[in-house]
Specification:
Elements: E1 2-4, E2 10-12, H1 30-36, H2 45-59, E3 62-63, H3 67-75, H4 81-94, E4 100-101, H5 103-109, H6 111-125, H7 129-141, E5 143-145, E6 151-153, E7 156-157, H8 168-180, E8 184-187, E9 196-199, H9 202-207, H10 209-237, H11 248-254, H12 262-336
Helix pairs in contact: 4-6, 5-6, 7-8, 10-12
């Protein structure tokens, strides 16, 4: 996206195509987006060859026969072709023999498809088991599952990685290792608290089998975490409207998640409080209903008792009147006789 901001300045914003469906939500910005959209299509074989050979010519780097052809065959058509190519070329440069890159060197690194994955495996296997656990946690925190089967990288604040009861120095040590290996990228802010980290190459999410396996194992948990993040942000945007809080199963499943940020914790705590308030209100309503039923039964019993008393009184009066009448009749009969 290219948009002029002044007579002498231009601002160029890049965006992945998988985020394009969200643009209509930005009602004021969307017309500018449509007017200024420039699509960057994937490089074809000729353009990729030029991207490989031109920079090499400038520094006198020589590719042995078969290396460039192998690179093109490996990365052409890959969704993350350029990141794979960039990482592979960098590793070839670091392992060059004087000014030459040999075909054996290319194959030893794993070729265009596996160089990145092999480098990631090499780093992972060099770590102690505790640090390997930290690597897994850090990287899974930096990926985000989409609505389908795809998973993309996600930039996060560095401070988020310290919110678990894991030693801060271990997190820093492992994170520095990932950054040094060019698997994670650090973006420094104006303040240390503004620092952000992300997976350095989207290709890592797609092409490192170990990470792909972790993602598959964690996919449902990650989706629950994403739903929680979105719900917490909506709750905050709506001035913490009680009706947007989670209750029941969704709340209880979310409470099992770890590495929650401050907003997510507040959202779940508010949900627990709202659920407890709902339960209390429900219990009070049930108690009120039970009390009303008891009072209704009591009133009915009292009414039935009053009715029985009236009937009994009436029966006694009638019996007494009949007794008196019988006595008068008997006296009358005696008088006649």
């Amino acid at each position: 996206l290219v948009q002029a901001t002044g007579s002498n300045h231009m601002v160029i914003l890049t965006m992945r195509t998988d985020f394009e469906p969200r643009m209509p939500q930005l009602t004021e910005f969307y017309p500018l987006f449509e007017q200024s959209l420039v699509r960057v299509t994937p490089l074809d074989a000729g353009e990729l060859r030029e991207a490989i050979e031109r920079p090499a010519e400038r520094v006198g780097l020589i590719f042995e026969d078969g290396v460039v052809k192998g690179l093109l065959q490996d990365v052409l058509g890959e969704p993350a072709a350029l990141p794979l190519l960039q990482f592979t070329l960098l590793k070839l440069w670091e392992n060059r023999q004087r000014n030459r890159i040999t075909l054996d060197m290319y194959h030893n690194l794993g070729g265009g498809r596996l160089t990145l994955a092999n480098s990631a495996d090499e780093l992972y296997e060099s770590l102690i088991p505790q640090d390997q656990v930290t690597v897994r946690r850090i990287l899974l925190h930096m990926v985000r599952p989409t609505e389908g089967l795809e998973v993309t990288s996600s930039r996060i604040r560095r401070d988020v990685l310290y919110q678990r009861s894991e030693a801060r120095d271990r997190v820093d040590h492992v994170l520095d290792k990932l950054i040094e290996a060019r698997l994670v990228r650090l973006t420094v802010g104006d303040q240390s608290s503004d620092a952000q980290v992300e997976v350095a190459h989207e290709a890592l999410v797609r092409n490192w089998p170990r990470l792909v396996g972790w993602i598959e194992d964690e996919r449902e948990r990650m989706r629950r975490r994403l739903r929680l993040t979105i719900a917490a942000e909506q709750w905050q945007a709506l001035d913490k409207d009680l009706s947007t809080l989670w209750r029941g199963r969704m709340l209880h499943e979310a409470l099992e998640l770890q590495d929650l940020n401050t907003l997510e914790k507040q959202f779940l705590e508010a949900g627990e409080a709202a659920e407890q308030a709902d339960l209390k209100e429900k219990e009070e309503a049930q108690q009120a209903l039970i009390l009303a039923e008891v009072q209704e039964r009591r009133a009915e019993d009292e009414a039935r008792a009053a009715t029985r008393l009236r009937w009994l009184t009436a029966a006694l009066i009638i019996s007494l009147l009949m007794t008196i009448a019988a006595a008068f009749w008997a006296q009358y009969q005696q008088n006649i006789a």
